[in-house]
Amino acid sequence: MSDWKKYLVFSKNEKIAVIFVLIVILSGTVIKLYLEVWSKPEKEIYNFDEFKNQLKVQITEDSIRLFSDTLQKNSDSSFSEFVTIDINEAGISEFEKLPGIGEGIASRIIEFRNKEGKFKKTEDLKKVKGIGEKKFQNIQKYIKVK
Q1: What's the CATH number where 103 sits?
Q2: What pLDDT does 77 receive?
Q3: What is the DSSP letter of 5?
Q4: Within 13 Å, how many C-alpha atoms sit on residue 96's CB side?
Q5: What share of the chain is helix, strand, coil (3-state, %, to 5)?
Q6: For labelling alongside 128, which of 81, 95, 135, 143 has CA 20 to 30 A away?
Q7: In sequence order, what are the residues at sequence separation of 6 or more whose Cβ sits closer than 8 angstroms to the Cβ of residue 138?
């Protein structure tokens, strides 16, 4: 027998120990595979309240600043920059959506329009009591005359 082969010979107890270690490693691997890959639950039941709590947004300084900037940008009206109303056809509810225009001024605009006739240009709106230069400047981008 060559020299290196005599080192590969195991006694009976050493063979049992090696086989035991191999069985433990193999069974651990099989159990891990079973738990991670093969044993998927058939149907998970979700608790809505727990799910809702997981979705709570964490408020950071950046999100507060972004929200504040958005509010400031849009605080002058509830209209989008792309929405305009025709002051010759708008009703009280449309006028009330304009910044600084309440039910009273909206009623006066309609009353003025009914009495004097249709507006020829948007600047004619300044003839209505309660609409000065400053208020007109605030609503000018949201109104038009057809």
Answers
A1: 1.10.150.320
A2: 47
A3: G
A4: 7
A5: 60, 5, 40
A6: 81
A7: 76, 77, 98, 99, 100
